[in-house]
Fold this protein.
Amino acid sequence: MNLNQQPTVDQLARILAAGRDTLDDHILWVCKRGDVHIDALANDADGEDFERTHPELRARMPIYRRGKGYVGKKAAADRQFVNDVFQTLNREWNLSQGQGQVRRIASYC
């Protein structure tokens, strides 16, 4: 899913569905090209560490802690949640254009 290429809520749902909520913490992030990624993290990982090791990162959601229901098939089936994340990513992506620093997204639309 690329935020510059008319993304859809269904594309985001597929990304969220790929995560395994019971296994790992996750981070949902956007690179400089506008591609949306979800990566598994070591438990209790720090978002700043992730930023240091991913210089292409432009925006990120808060870390989704294991077992909280933010990733996986159930999360992807929650249309309100997915739509809120989708709207937030699009808004924050538009706001991040022309800025050199990472946007740390703290809340949903």
